[in-house]
Design a protein that fits this description.
Helix 2 links the parallel strand 2 and strand 3. The chain is an alpha/beta fold. The protein has an 8-stranded parallel sheet. The protein is globular and about 40 Å long. The model has no long low-confidence stretch (mean pLDDT about 95). The structure holds D-xylitol-5-phosphate and zinc ion. The site of D-xylitol-5-phosphate has 22 residues, from strand 2, strand 8 and helix 7. The site of zinc ion has 6 residues, from strand 2.
């Protein structure tokens, strides 16, 4: 039930294929791919051709996080490139419901992300059309930032909103996640953890193993309850 989604933004881009193989072999369930357009967020990162190129390196779930304005324009392209799931930002879509329904109609997983300043109630009326909600725990645009402390409360609030009518929706967190704060984040209600710096800096195998240990403990605790 808990999943690790290493963000390749922190990977060695000169060796990307090999880095994807490493996280796959280490047991990370997802490959988190951050797409940035220089408009919705200040940075520009990678796009469709890069996803196409790395698709053959791993059979894991390609979790494509679109930090771009009006992502509906590019959904088909990202699906064709190999996305298994696409996340769009509530703040970037004029017609959020239409965008999410469009993603779902193509047979892949649809997810909605909210920035730190966005209240969970902003997505209450699209929950019927999503498989996952991504809570940004930093302001999007850069790796290596520190988690914003009120994120824990926000995840709890979202969790209680979701569990009423949509208990199966995954809660993903992204930004400043590491093996030290992971336990608290899981306790608040998240089950899919994005991690860039804390997976790719240093020894990838050891870093993934640390997260797996946190997951195992959290699974044990929830069974014991
Ligand atoms: C931020 C991206 C994140 C980022 C996470 O805009 O969405 O996925 O790469 O990096 P870390 O884990 O280093 O904060
Ligand atoms: Zn991301």
């Amino acid at each position: 039930m808990f999943k690790l989604a290493p963000s390749i933004l922190a990977a060695d881009f000169s060796n990307l294929g090999e880095q994807i193989r490493r996280i796959d072999k280490a047991g990370a369930e997802y490959v988190h791919i951050d797409v940035m357009d220089g408009m919705f967020v200040p940075s520009i990162s990678v796009g469709v051709p890069v996803i196409k190129a790395i698709r053959e390196k791993s059979k894991r779930f390609f979790d494509v996080h679109l930090m771009i304005e009006e992502p509906i324009r590019y959904i088909d392209d990202f699906i064709e490139a190999g996305a298994d799931g696409i996340t769009v930002h509530a703040e970037a879509c004029k017609h959020l419901n239409r965008t999410l329904q469009y993603i779902k109609s193509k047979g892949i997983k649809a997810s909605v992300a909210i920035n730190p300043a966005t209240h969970p109630s902003a997505i209450e009326y699209v929950l019927d059309d999503v498989d996952m909600v991504l809570v940004m725990t930093v302001n999007p645009g850069f790796g290596g930032q520190t988690l914003i402390p009120n994120s824990y409360q926000k995840i709890e609030d979202l969790k209680s909103m979701i569990k009423r009518n949509h208990p199966d929706i995954d809660i993903q967190v992204d930004g400043g996640i590491n093996a030290t704060n992971a336990a608290g984040i899981i306790k608040a209600g998240a089950n899919i953890l994005v991690a860039g710096t804390s997976v790719f800096r240093g020894n990838i195998d050891e870093n993934v193993a640390l997260f797996k240990e946190v997951f195992a403990n959290a699974t044990g605790e929830s069974k014991g309850r």
